[in-house]
Design goal:
alpha+beta, two-stranded parallel ribbon, 4 strands
Length: about 110
């Protein structure tokens, strides 16, 4: 999970434990990206032109989820996800189904 400041309420790094309580899955790792560098890399990747991954007027990818199979590597461009969607709240069932199907053996 990569968290970036987007709204004015995101101006400061959340306190320890806040992010892990938001997504309390032990498989999740949480990162704070105050410079929004991940958004920049995502938006520079050619595959984003064919999906609804846009930075909007802020140039920031947010409230977006991407799933990758185990072993996926970030090479020259940010990798195209096998599942991607937004807003996250509306993607829960689709993502959970993909996780159950593809990561059940882990």
């Amino acid at each position: 999970m990569v968290w970036e400041p987007v709204l004015w309420t995101d101006a400061f790094r959340p306190r320890a434990g806040t992010l892990t309580r938001t997504i309390a899955d032990t498989r999740a790792a949480h990162y704070w990206d105050p410079g929004k560098s991940l958004s920049t890399h995502i938006l520079q990747s050619p595959w984003t032109r064919k999906f609804a991954v846009r930075g909007g007027s802020l140039g920031v990818v947010w409230d977006w989820i991407a799933c990758y199979p185990p072993g996926m590597r970030w090479e020259s461009d940010f990798p195209e996800p096998v599942v991607q969607d937004f807003p996250i709240i509306d993607s829960t069932d689709r993502v959970r189904a993909w996780l159950d199907k593809n990561l059940a053996h882990r």
